[in-house]
Write a structure and sequence with these properties.
CATH superfamily: P-loop containing nucleotide triphosphate hydrolases
CATH class: Alpha Beta
Shape: globular
Largest sheet: 4 strands, parallel
Number of helices: 7
Number of domains: 1
Strand content: 5-15%
Oligomer: single chain
Length: 164
């Protein structure tokens, strides 16, 4: 397999983290790269990523995330990049950066029904923010409804996309 990056994205509560880790673990050499970590390390001057004033910050962070994914992939790791890469803003530019570096990109947008996302995030996120972010993923073709099966089944679907 050539250098490959699998992007697992979707709204909060979609099951991205669990599915991404399972996919990375299936590879002989796999990395689960969590985009959220790159936001977490900003200790001063941070803007919440879903707010309008965060756009420049988000562009910079996504550029760094793409470079990290390329580095792992070119090092021989199946790299599973997981995070909320908004289709309207960041998914295509990140894919383009990774492809420009010579890596194959496979995307998996996870999007269960809103009620599922709200239930899964009840203890950790504001419902209005979850709904706003869920709507950002509306209309994505081939989205995977992660409410239809357990995480290993979702990982199977993602792995199948990679294999094909």
């Amino acid at each position: 397999m050539s250098a490959a990056v699998v992007i697992v994205t979707g709204p909060p509560g979609a099951g991205k983290t669990t599915a991404a880790r399972l996919v990375a673990q299936r590879a002989e050499r796999g990395v689960h790269l969590q985009a959220d970590w790159f936001f977490d390390v900003i200790v001063a001057g941070f803007a919440e990523p879903w707010k309008a004033e965060s756009h420049a910050q988000n562009e910079q962070v996504m550029e760094i995330v793409a470079r990290a994914a390329v580095g792992y992939a070119q090092g021989g790791y199946l790299t599973v990049l997981e995070g909320m890469l908004m289709p309207r803003w960041f998914l295509n530019p990140v894919c383009e950066r990774i492809e420009a570096a010579g890596c194959e990109v496979v995307t998996a947008v996870l999007r269960p029904p809103l009620e599922v996302c709200l239930d899964r995030t009840r203890e950790r996120a504001d419902a209005a923010v979850v709904e706003q972010l869920w709507r950002e993923f509306a209309g994505v073709e081939d989205a995977i409804d992660t409410s239809a099966g357990p995480p290993p089944q979702v990982a199977d679907l993602i792995w199948h996309r990679l294999a094909s």
